[in-house]
UniProtKB/TrEMBL annotation:
It comes from Saccharopolyspora taberi. InterPro entries: GDSL_Rv0518-like, SGNH_hydro, SGNH_hydro_sf. One of its GO terms (molecular function) is hydrolase activity. Coiled coil: none annotated. This is SGNH/GDSL hydrolase family protein. It holds the Pfam family Lipase_GDSL_2. Residues 23-195 form the SGNH hydrolase-type esterase domain. Keywords: Hydrolase. It comes from the Bacteria.
Length: 279
């Protein structure tokens, strides 16, 4: 992989039992997909906090957030908590918008990771899977979004490498493409999927020298069972409106992209490695 950006080695700092976990991200980081009795969401963040044994969990994530929202809105709140460990998880919402810009995404993620590591936090982030294998899409649209995800991963990889952040590769996460991992909407992990995320994040922190209080159990418990009625209600109340909203923004851009002459690629920043092409 060719990366021109200088790799920054964080100053040595003592690791061990952390005290504050900050979570920055989108609806998955909020916990959507893992409902609990009495209403609301749990998600991977509380499970990870328990595994790390932190005294404080500061989750500044918001549903629908894009990487730019982390840089401008969530980062200041996270830094005020003075975290010694942090999870950064966003980018999928960016792939589904017409103003997708890999250069801007890299710059925003680089800024977020830089500020967190400069503040002394050990950071773990992610790279994405092929979500077209989970949420079934027509072939051309799937290939279009898969290319977007590949470009997003280039930006995320370059920023993580530069700042020495740990990375959870969702494409290589065991069980990532199994239906039981996902909630009824097939956009967010279910309870098992959130437990898998918490387990993977905890392992990355342990690899960085952070002491764990306990392992994250992959045995589902404490969540609310989701029924077929829940699926139908979600489809009517959330799924269809979500698709209509996204279609108004992305589908015209997608149609225009299909009409472009073959062989003219989208511009990619010269400072980033280029997407691998497939035959």
């Amino acid at each position: 992989m060719r990366v021109h950006a200088e790799v920054i080695t964080p100053d040595p700092r003592p690791l061990g039992r952390p005290t504050t976990l900050a979570v920055l991200g989108d609806s998955i980081a909020v916990g959507i997909g893992d409902p609990v009795h009495g209403g609301g969401w749990r998600g991977f963040a509380p499970l990870l906090a328990d595994s790390l044994g932190v005294a404080r969990l500061v989750n500044v994530s918001t549903s629908g957030a894009r990487i730019g929202d982390l840089a401008t809105g969530q980062l200041p709140a996270a830094l005020r908590s003075q975290p010694d460990v942090a999870v950064v998880m966003a980018g999928m919402n960016d792939t589904m918008r017409s103003d997708f810009d890999v250069r801007r995404l890299h710059a925003d993620m680089d800024h977020v990771l830089s500020r967190l590591t400069d503040a002394g936090a050990t950071v773990v982030t992610i790279r994405y899977h092929d979500h077209g294998r989970v949420f079934r899409l027509p072939g051309p649209l799937r290939r279009f979004l898969t290319g977007r995800i590949d470009d997003l991963n280039i930006a995320l990889d370059a920023a993580a490498q530069r700042h020495g952040a740990g990375v959870v590769d969702l494409d290589r996460l065991p069980g990532a493409y199994h239906p039981a991992t996902w909630s009824v909407d097939r956009l967010h992990p279910g309870e098992l999927g959130h437990r898998m995320l918490a387990h993977a994040f905890a392992r990355e922190f342990a690899n960085a020298g952070v002491a764990l209080s306990r392992e994250v159990s992959l045995r589902c418990s404490g969540g609310r069972r989701v029924s077929r009625l829940d699926h139908l209600l979600w489809l009517l109340a959330k799924g269809i409106p979500w698709l209509v909203t996204r279609s108004a923004d992305l589908i015209p851009y997608f149609a225009n992209a299909l009409l472009r002459p073959r062989g003219i690629p989208d511009p990619v920043d010269d400072d980033l490695p280029r997407r691998r092409t497939t035959g």
